[in-house]
């Protein structure tokens, strides 16, 4: 379990670094403590989203099925989370966003098998639940990111005025 937590945190920090490093490069006036704080906060948020992905897919599968699934739930295992870490490492925009996306699709396909086995839903139905869960979490995180950027930009303009 501690290996899974470590890998999820590593994936979260790596994913956050892929978003924060280009921002820090474009704004050379950002102090190191601010960048480090953004990296830690972003890494924790990304790790939490990665952690929620199987749980959200399981919840969607429960909604699709007419009866309660017989399994105990879907959780990350080291062999399922390892490709996620690779996908997060490739999150840097200059290293290939298409490859990054393809790896996330691969990770989702890897989650679909255990979800299908645990729920009896069928692979395509489980894959749809995983895809909808991943897309929904991604959209939610992106909305929060944009809101934080908008609020921080507004606060920055007010403090200079």
Low-confidence stretches: none
Cα-based radius of gyration, to the nearest Å: 18 Å
The largest pleated sheet is described as: none
Total helical elements? 5
Q: How far is the first residue's CA from the last residue's CA? A: 50 Å
Beta-strand residue percentage: under 5%
Number of domains: 1
**Classification by helices and strands:** mainly alpha
The helix/strand series, from N terminus to C terminus, equals HHHHH
User: What proportion of the residues is helical, as a percent range?
Assistant: over 70%
Mean pLDDT: 81
Number of strands: 0
Give the arrangement of secondary structure elements.
Elements: H1 2-26, H2 32-64, H3 78-89, H4 97-119, H5 123-160
Any overview of this molecule?
The chain is mostly helical. Helices cover 81% and strands 0% of the residues. The protein has one domain. The chain is built from five helices and no strands. Helix 2 packs antiparallel against helix 5 and helix 3 packs antiparallel against helix 4.
Give a concise summary.
The chain has one domain.
Tag the structure with descriptive keywords.
single chain; membrane; transmembrane; transmembrane helix; 161 residues; Integral membrane protein; mainly alpha
